[in-house]
Amino acid sequence: MSDVLIRVAGLRKNFGSVQVLDGVEFSIAKGEVFTLLGPSGCGKSTTLRIIAGLEAADEGEIKLGSKTLLSTAQRVNLQPEDRHMGMVFQSYAIWPHMTVAENVAYPLKLRGVSRAEIDRRVASALRLVDLEQQADRPAPKLSGGQQQRVALARALVYEPEVLLLDEPLSNLDVKLREQMRFELKLLQERLGLTLIYVTHDQSEALSLSNRVALMNHGRIEQLSAPDELYERPKTEFVRDFLGKTIVLPGRIESRDGTGATVSLANAPGHISCRGHNDSAHYPPGANVNVAIRPERIRLSTLSDGNGAALEGLVETILYQGERSECAVRVGSELITVYGAPEARHLRNHKVWLDFTPEAVTLWPR
Ligand code: ADP
Ligand code: MG
Question: Which among 45, 57, 95, 308 has the fewest CB atoms less than 10 Å away?
Fold first, then answer.
C-alpha cells in the first residue's frame, strides 16, 4: 500500500483465560477511513483501545509512520498522550460542569497551550462541527447530536494525526445517525482525516469506509473495500453478516468452462451459477448451497419464455413504502424478494423470479 501511516501487526490479547485478540494485523494509509466491523464481543473496542494506548497487549507491534507506539518484543509502550491520536466514544464523555467551549479547550489546557492559541483553535474546531453559536452554553443543555459534535470537536482540537472512533453514532436516534454519518464523511474528506472507526452497524461501515475489516472471534475474517466485502464475500460468516442472502440447497448437475448447473433440492428447476466463488471445485453430483442476494432477483408476472426463471406463488407481502417485500413459494422453499411498490397487489399471483448466473454463488452443504 502506498503511503502507509499506521501499521498494526500480530496483536494478541487475553483477558484471563479468554482469548480476545488472536493475531490482528492491518495497515492504514494516510487519509483513509478504516473500519473494524463485527458482532458484539469480537474484539473491535479492545483493538482500538490498544491502538490508543488505553489497554495493554500481550503481544504485537504498532507503528505510526516510522515511530513505534507499541512493541512487546522491544518493550515499547507509549503513553496515550504521546501517540497523537484523538478519540471519540459512544458515550460522548463530555464534561457536564463545563460549557461547550471549555469542553473543547480541555485537551489543550492539559497540554499547556497558551490562552490565545487555545481561543483560536477552539473557535476553529467549533466552526468545523457547526457549533460556534453554542460555544458558551452549558454542554449538557445540548441535544444528543450536538453533544456528539462537541466530543468530535474536542478530539479534533489538537489536530491529531489519527482519529479513533468507537461506535460514535450508536447512541443517536436513526434520523440523526444518518445525518451525522454525512457530516462525518464531509468533515473527513474536507480535512483529509485518517480515521479508525469501530462499529457493529454494517451500513455505517459500508457507507463511511475506504476499507472494512470484518472481525469474528478476535480475528479479521476479511479485509476489503466495502463493495468487495459485500459482493465477493470469502466466507459464509462474511456473506451472512452483511445484508440478506437467500440460500437454497441443491446438487451439481453439470459443469462447463465457466460455471455449473444446479438442480434445487426443494423446488423444481435448474439454476445456472457463475458467481465469483465457483472455482470449479464442486464436481457433478456434489451437494451444494446456492446463494443469491434478494436485490439481484427480478420479480415478474410474465414468464421469460426460456424456462430460466423460477416459477412461484406470492404467499404474502410486506409493503414498505419504497418497495414491497414478497414471500414467494417456489416448490417447498419460501423466498423473500424485493418488488416494486406496486407489487403490493400480487398476493396469490403467479410470478417468476429472474436473475443472472453471475449473481449466484456456490457454497458447501
Ligand atoms: P467489541 O467491541 O467487538 O464488542 P470488545 O473488544 O469490547 O468487543 O470485547 C471483546 C471481548 O473481551 C468480549 O468478550 C468482552 O467481554 C471481553 N472483555 C473486554 N474488556 C474486558 C475486560 N476489561 N476484562 C475482561 N474481559 C473483557
Ligand atoms: Mg465495542
Answer: 95
Query: How far from each other are the two terminal CA atoms of the chain, in whole angstroms?
Result: 37
Q: How many residues does the chain have?
A: 365
Q: Which three cell numbers stand for residue 233?
A: 464475500
- The residues, ordered by sequence, that sit 6+ positions from 345 with a Cβ below 8 Å of its Cβ are none
Q: Which tens digits make up the pLDDT trace of 278-300?
A: 666 889 999 999 999 999 999 99
In tens, the pLDDT along 151-167 reads 989 988 888 889 999 99
User: What is the reported pTM?
Assistant: 0.92
In a mutational test of the pocket of ligand 1, which residue from 14, 17, 18, 20 has the highest number of ligand atoms less than 8 Å from its CB?
20
Instruction: State the Cα–Cα distance between residues 239 and 271, nearest whole angstrom.
Output: 20
- Lookup: cell for 323: 418497495
Continuous segment of H or E residues that includes residue 85: strand 85-88
- The b/e string for 305-327 (b: 16+ C-beta within 10 A; e otherwise) is eeebbbbbebeebeeeeebbbbb
What CA–CA distance (Å, rounded) separates 280 from 295? Answer: 26
Closest atom of ligand 1 to CA, residue 21: 10
From 46, 48, 219, give the residue whose CB has the most ligand 1 atoms within 8 Å, as the site to mutate: 46
15 lines ligand 1 (CB under 6 A): yes
